[in-house]
Prior knowledge:
Belongs to the iron/ascorbate-dependent oxidoreductase family. This protein has nine helices and 16 strands. The protein has helices at residues 23-39, 52-66, 70-73, 123-149, 157-160, 244-249, 267-270, 294-297, 309-320, and strands at 6-8, 42-46, 86-88, 101-102, 105-109, 177-183, 196-197, 199-202, 208-213, 219-222, 228-230, 238-242, 259-261, 274-281, 288-289, 307-308. The protein has an eight-stranded mixed sheet with strand order 1-2-12-9-14-6-5-3. Helix 1 links the parallel strand 1 (6-8) and strand 2. Helix 2 crosses helix 4. The chain binds 2-oxoglutaric acid (AKG) and fe (ii) ion. Fe (ii) ion binds next to loops. The site of 2-oxoglutaric acid (AKG) has 11 residues, from strand 6, strand 9, strand 13 and strand 14.
Amino acid sequence: MDTIPVIDFGLIGTSDKKTSDTEEQWKILSENVFNALSRIGFMYIIKHGIPQSKIDHAFAESEGFFQQPDVIKEKYLIDMSKNYRGYTRPGQQILSHTSFHEFRECFSIEEPDEAYTVEETPGLISSIEDLRKHCRLPVRQLLRLIAMALKLDDEDYFVNNYNGGRLHQDPGLNSSMVRTHYYPPIPEEIQIPANSVRCSEHTDFGILTFLFQDAMGGLEVKALAGNWIKANPIRGAILVNTGDIMELWTGGLFPATPHRVLIPEEEIQKRTKRQSITYFVNPDSETLVSPLSSKLCHGSGRSFESVIFRDHYQKRLEASYKY
Ligand SMILES: O=C(O)CCC(=O)C(=O)O
Ligand SMILES: [Fe+2]
């Protein structure tokens, strides 16, 4: 499959569980989800119920933050000895050993913390938290659709491993993270070092990622055959992909699809900033993740080792921040 399918969540409405009225629609969507995740690992979700104004607001607040001088942004520099919250400057996180530099800066928020503020852009944290809050319903819907797609006896299995099945996030229990990215314009006078990218080829670390992107484009997805296809922006749609944990749970049936953002060849895009916001959906930190059944693993021919999510996450984050 060389196109990224579009899945319409409007069909199942605003309940996070199927009801007798919507059972048929849930079944159809779960089949669509199965095809998308087994063939490409990416899909667009439309009519997901998140107001466009919330998305636009988080983008505007993020832009306000990133356009400030470095000295201000670096006041909020990530301190990895404590947590992964705060500002990452360009080149500080490199997602693949094959890249020399990433023209990408970002700001990450792991879990809600009322006391944490960015005084120069006071709306940054609240707009991001608002977006996170709105993501929870479509995340829970999708986790149940995936359980149905896999024909699990327990359709709540994934939901129960995401914040212990609760709608509100418990600090410490779950490290799901919102990260707002800014790819700065690359001015003509800058010498671009060899092997530089905007974002290196990588897989995501958790269960799923929800990605909101602006109109600029540039994200590419590696199809199973190894060719790269463009994940063109669709206004208002959430681009969803599976991460390492879904690949492990399904024994490779739903692979974690590699993706990247190269430095654009088109001058206009190169000289223009790009923004994206990701919500990385992680299982609860203490979850022991292993392939769910030998039936699912059958056919992939690969073996998978069980991991405690906290250990896996720590390892992957530390490796990417070593530089
Ligand atoms: O900015 C993008 O479009 C991709 C970002 C991404 O893949 C990530 O942060 O994991
Ligand atoms: Fe990613």
